[in-house]
Amino acid sequence: MISYEPLFKTMKEKKITSYKLQKAGFSRATYYSIKQGNSISTNTVNQLCRILKCGVADIIEYREDD
Question: Are 36 and 26 in contact, with CB atoms under 8 Å apart?
Answer without folding.
Answer: no
